[in-house]
Amino acid sequence: MGLFGFFNLHRNCTVPVEDKQLYGLGGAVAKHLVGTIPTEKVTHLFTNRYFTGLAILDYLVSKNVYLTGTVMTNHTDGVAESFPKDTCMERGSSVSRRREDRRACLVKWKDKTSVLLLSSAFGIKPDGSCKRWVKEQRQRVDVR
Questions:
Q1: Contact yes or no for 35/59 (Cβ under 8 A)
Q2: Which residue has the higher pLDDT, 25 or 116?
Q3: Which residue ranges does the record assign to the PiggyBac transposable element-derived protein domain (predicted)?
Q4: Which of 81, 111, 84 is nearest to 95 (CA)?
């Protein structure tokens, strides 16, 4: 058990054209990163929206690496379009879709703006809460 952090600053490094076409630039960089770490044991990779997508998620699961990260709408193969619009969601609400093979979960969570999360490791449960500062009330309030 342990926590391992690995940072690779991406600066015009070359990634194979095939990987770039399959996974996008961010996914190709994530594939390169995973190629440098041992994957005999289950590994969890947390990324931001530039490195997260369904195509790279499938590749990583095949290598015993589970991905969790924020994701751009255009990297969800149209699944994000099935979610309600931001104006129809209340602050603190969330919706999720799980793929039929149960290898991926996409969650849309609404705070001031919405956030899309894609994961092959985690689902929407358990539902938690946190506190945020409300300027008008001058106090912290619970947020789901």
A1: no
A2: 116
A3: 19-126
A4: 84
Is the Cα dihedral 42, 48, 53, 55 positive or negative? Answer: negative
- The CA distance from 113 to 45, in Å, is 25
- Of the pLDDT bands very low, low, confident and very high (cuts 50, 70, 90), residue 36 is confident
Parallel/antiparallel/unpaired status of strands 43-47 and 65-70: parallel
Residue positions counted in the chain: 144
Radius of gyration of the chain (CA): 17
Token digits of residue 143: 């947020």
How many CB atoms are located within 10 Å of the residue 49 CB?
17
Q: Which residue has the tokens 């041992």?
A: 38
What are the residues whose beta carbons fall under 8 Å from the beta carbon of 88, sequence distance 6 or more?
none
Q: How far is CA 22 from the centre of its chain?
A: 18
